[in-house]
Amino acid sequence: MPTPAHSSLAEPLTYRADQALAPGTLVRVPLGAREVLGVVWANDLPAPAAELAVQVRPIAGALDGLPPLDDHWRALIGFTARYYQRALGEVALAALPPQLRTLTSVQLARRLKRQSAAATVQPGTPTLEALSGEQAAALQAIEAERGPFLLFGATGSGKTEVYMRAAADALARDPAAQVLVLVPEINLTPQLEARFAARFGAEAVVSLHSGLTPAQRLGHWLAAHLGHARIVLGTRVAVLASVPWLALIVVDEEHDPSYKQQEGARYSARDLAVYRGHLSGAKVVLGSATPSLESWHASTPAPDGPGRYQRLAMPRRIGTAATDDPNAGLPRVRRVDMTRQPKGTLLAPPLLAALTERVGRGEQVLLLLNRRGWAPVLACGDCGWKSECPHCSAYRVFHKIDRTLRCHHCGFTQRVPRACPSCGNPDIGTLGRGTEQLEERLVELLAEVRRPDGSPVQVLRIDADSARGAGRLEAQLAQVHGGDVDVLVGTQMVAKGHDFRRVSLVAAINPDGALYASDFRAPERLFALLMQAAGRAGRDAASGMDSEMWVQTQHPKHALFAALKTHDYPGFAAGQLKERAEAGLPPFCHLALLRAEARTQEAAQGFLNAVAETAAEALAQGELAEAFSNLTWYPAVPLTVQRVANIERAQMLIESPSRMALQRVLAACQPLLHALRASAEHKAVVRWAMDVDPLAV
Ligand SMILES: Nc1ncnc2c1ncn2[C@@H]1O[C@H](COP(=O)(O)OP(=O)(O)OP(=O)(O)O)[C@@H](O)[C@H]1O
Ligand SMILES: [Zn+2]
Fold first, then answer.
1. Nearest ligand atom owner, CA of 389
2. Quick check: 453 pLDDT over 50?
3. Gene3D superfamilies from the xrefs (predicted)?
4. What is the mean pLDDT of residues 223-245?
5. Domain carrying residue 670
6. Judgement on whether residues 355 and 467 belong to the same structural domain of the protein
7. Cα–ligand 2 centroid distance for 409 (angstroms)
8. Does residue 319 form part of some domain?
9. Tell me, what CATH number does 217's domain have?
10. Coil, strand, or helix at residue 226?
């Protein structure tokens, strides 16, 4: 009973095969007029009645040069499809390398011949540093206990070393063992891949992510599937790779939102990693200096929390064990009250002075501004015109570099008008600031400043615009690591995971926007971003540089900044969890979002409300009555950015204290959703999607 990978059909299809095929075997099967890739899902079906048997088509061929996908993998795919409410075939397909879809059995055999044999792993090289006491204790616990573990290690506490030693232990224990290491965005951390390759040998490590060519992706996937790769390093898609001898899964920076897939099956790779570990008996280590509140709560011991994960703390930075100060080596946090600065100040004078001094001493400075472009809005002071996107409910951003107005939602781009398009006023201006403007201003402000060797100061901007193009980002990061850059300006991209050795001052230029955002996770995100940004400063304890994190804010007394000042993640988390418990928000309840897109807002909301009504009629009585009574359905509302590319977007929140109840009702809603979508009444609906455990609401 192979499941053809591309169909949106929920259930596997039945085919006939002359030879017995083990479950997990890849096959090519006819589907309508096409021939597609499939996976044998079960082979123990009762023979169909004679009159039906003639309708069962034979498979076109089996890719039997390849070992079948194992039970654990199939169970993982089955779980993912069920939990995230998607078709089995779709999830299986997304997990397989695209090139497999087109290969014939003969081509695959040829490809397999070229695949190199199993890599030999050199266990430990003699140049290893001695572990810190905290690192040694964490490793010992990982060795001795079952987990899953939350490695709660301060920035610069040496979590990567713990991952590598735990990996080395797992590989040494079993000559076939494999390790899966998940990272948020691989091109942001080229350093990490290099460190693993240096430690374990380049042949033993393969990467899996969307930046690979189709041929590389197939090659790396095969290396993992055949057991040749001992370490598989990848982004969220790698959690679904076939890794048959899996012994350890590491999820680095487990709080990172990019672990959540945002289209198709909207899975959380972090949550699936925990499930996968449970399925295949592999240990799971989630690591972060700013864990997600879900993982923090899960690792809180009874009676205050469920104690499902075991928390391992490494509060100290490497090289600071000799002092009594638990925050030794972490930057001193300074809040600048922007209400006391002249209106429109971009960089407060004391910050500019500190920055100038640091650069003059040959230290590096990192400025965080989470907004790309020159200014978020272009506006006319006379008639009130603003640079709205004609296709979206959003403003187009002014990019000075190529003099364009660009919509960051739909991509619509035009040249900047010379005068106000509405009233002809030639004197149009900008509102707000982005990274381009900050970069330009810094170059002006630092024009007279010299580095210790007398050369002019170098300013570099890193954001999604500067990083466009293959290899650009890696090259820019290499410039920073190489010391060619004095001031680095960037969006959240620069705050993540980098081991910058010479940064001694980090500043958040304007973080206030997120303080009062409507999403209940906004404070958690902001706190993590600022802690991580601060974590890029003063990483070389041996250099003796003191380091600082500056925060420019209109709300210097805000509790979030107070917690940041003392590097108090546990205090911040406790406050947030208390609020979440009182408000009945995750992790104390479970959410699903139903989204709809249509030509009109009315049609989008009408569809969602019809789903809620139909579900109530169909499910409130009968078998699912009790589960259904555990759910709260909120009315449909427009999304914050309501219209994108002329499509109206709406969503409906469904909430339950019981994950099980939510799962059962969502599954029962699937046929209702498909039927409603197909009905004439809702033909204006363009698409709908279900997001289980959504990250943003
Ligand atoms: N036992 C050790 N002795 C000396 N140096 C070490 C040791 N362990 C790690 N380091 C070094 O300390 C630095 C910080 O370690 P690492 O990058 O692993 O930190 P991290 O905990 O992952 O931080 P972040 O959360 O900021 O990414 C690295 O340069 C690493 O090589
Ligand atoms: Zn647009």
1. 2
2. yes
3. P-loop containing nucleotide triphosphate hydrolases, PriA, 3(prime) DNA-binding domain
4. 96
5. 590-692
6. yes
7. 5
8. no
9. 3.40.50.300
10. coil
Report whether 407 belongs to an annotated binding site: yes
pLDDT digits (tens, 9 = 90+) for 364-386: 999 999 999 988 889 998 898 99
Q: Positive or negative, the Cα torsion across 417, 421, 425, 429?
A: negative
Higher pLDDT, 117 or 644: 644
Q: What is the pLDDT of residues 55-80, one digit of tens each?
A: 789 898 898 889 999 999 999 999 99
Task: Find the CATH number of the domain harbouring 48.
Answer: 3.40.1440.60
d(CA 59, CA 14): 9
CA-wise closest residue to 462 among 439, 435, 490, 442: 490
Distance 416 CA to ligand 2 centre (A): 15
Residues 495 and 638 in one domain: no
Does 669 appear as a known binding residue? no
pLDDT at 328: 83
Q: Indicate which ligand has the atom closest to the C-alpha of 131.
A: 1
Report yes or no for ipTM above 0.90: yes
Token pair 């290969």 in the structure block, residue: 103
Nearest to 595 by CA among 641, 631, 539, 561: 641
Residue that finishes a domain, picked among 114, 141, 171: 114
Do 363 and 302 lie in one domain? The reply is no
Three-state DSSP class for residue 137: helix
Please give the distance, rounded to the nearest whole angstrom, from the Cα atom of residue 55 to the centre of ligand 1.
62
Tell me which residue has its CA closest to atom 27 in ligand 1: 497
User: Quick check: 122 pLDDT over 70?
Assistant: no
Residue closest via CA to ligand 1's atom 28 equals 158
Who lines ligand 1 at CB under 6 A?
A: 129-132, 135, 153, 155-161, 289, 318, 497, 499, 535
**Nearest partner of 254 among 291, 204, 304, judged by Cα:** 291
How far is ligand 2, taken at its centre, from the CA of residue 396, in Å? Answer: 7
SS3 for 276-322 is: HHHHHCCEEEEEECCCCHHHHHHCCCCCCCCCCCEEEEECCCCCCCC
Q: Where is average pLDDT lowest: 463-472, 577-586, 624-633? A: 463-472
pLDDT above 80 for 128: no
Q: Take atom 8 of ligand 1 and give the residue whose Cα is closest.
A: 158
- 138 and 283 part of one domain: yes
pLDDT score recorded for residue 127? 66
- Under 8 Å between Cβ of 432 and 366: no
Residue 144 lies in a domain: yes
Nearest ligand to the CA atom of 641: 2
The partner residues of 590 in beta bridges, in order of sequence, read 656
- Which of 131, 151, 160 best tests ligand 1's pocket when mutated (most atoms within 8 Å of CB)? 160
Answer yes or no: do 522 and 449 share one domain: yes
